[in-house]
Amino acid sequence: xxxxxxxxxxxxxxxxxxxxxxxxxxxxxxxxxxxxxxxxxxxxxxxxxxxxxxxxxxxxxxxxxxxxxxxxxxxxxxxxxxxxxxxxxxxxxxxxxxxxxxxxxxxxxxxxxxxxxxxxxxxxxxxxxxxxxxxxxxxxxxxxxxxxxxxxxxxxxxxxxxxxxxxxxxxxxxxxxxxxxxxxxxxxxxxxxxxxxxxxxxxxxxxxxxxxxxxxxxxxxxxxxxxxxxxxxxxxxxxxxxxxxxxxxxxxxxxxxxxxxxxxxxxxxxxxxxxxxxxxxxxxxxxxxxxxxxxxxxxxxxxxxxxxxxxxxxxxxxxxxxxxxxxxxxxxxxxxxxxxxxxxxxxxxxxxxxxxxxxxxxxxxxxxxxxxxxxxxxxxxxxxxxxxxxxxxxxxxxxxxxxxxxxxxxxxxxxxxxxxxxxxxxxxxxxxxxxxxxxxxxxxxxxxxx
Length: 450
Hints:
Number of helices: 14
Largest sheet: 6 strands, mixed
Radius of gyration: 23 Å
Strand content: 15-25%
Strand order of the largest sheet: 1-5-4-2-3-6
Low-confidence stretches: none
Helix content: 25-40%
Distance between the termini: 33 Å
Shape: globular
């Protein structure tokens, strides 16, 4: 199944503005029922449900519960729980599926539903298609004696905290670190601070007072400015910023400088290599900075580029038999530790390398010298097939010849809006901007003249 054949599922579940489209209680009841019919076909099958802290989570949790019960499935309610925690607990509970109610890094007025298989991985396309086909059928309720029951899991947070701590060696002690942790008023608010404290760190918290409306608001991995200021004010060793559902990570070094997903990917890969673990193949995306690729090359590590999106990073990891992958946005996957992107687990891998190498976060990330990138969005009045316009290919070739090995060009059509994204990367910021504008002008001429 391709994205074009999906009516409801996007690249990461189903997402949208609450009360609009399919993000409504009636649809989510039917969705819960369809998932129950497809993923939990045996009697007494069980499905886990976790959610982030946005106010609509209560409504959609109840709706999913009703639909799953009608399908004869038992429901285990985890309460506020990071997305990667649901993936982990789905495996350890031997459940048939895990469901997360979250719109990740979006504002509170959005929400979404995403799913994990019994193995704790994202659902394959074939299963998503089967669920969509089931949604076309009338909702039927099993007989009363077969209805699913609901159970609340009281120790879910403690189980996940212990798992996170187990992903670094016993010899790693964070007692000498002062850390500022920003939980984005999201699903990690009652978990992340405890993980780092229990490993010995001095923890200063931010974004740990969710009210249903303030998730990701001026905080978290997408808004790290206050974290940068707090690190400097508290003279902390580093800062950790998670997003609303805990699967993304951005860090701040002791100088208040951002350490993004490209930097983190390099630090984790080098840590694996330094400790004797294989790290010859790392997966980034088409947007990963060329500086990351060159930094990895110096250590005989190959960067493979996937399409943008954690689904595609995971696919590429499987293709190249890799273990470490991620995006500049901070979605890092460590398949030698867990089955999906996990902000807390990724942060622990970086902290372990800080402690074991004896280097500061600032020094570790300084090995990646970023190339200036210029991104221009060219809005289209009509859709075009770039392959049908030789002048675009010629313009790209001209820019590539100018940049040589010290830059690259990427033209990418948006999957959600009529936009062509023009990205040029090179050593010289001024030249990079000029070349990006040059390419954008060619595309605009094609639109206007034909």
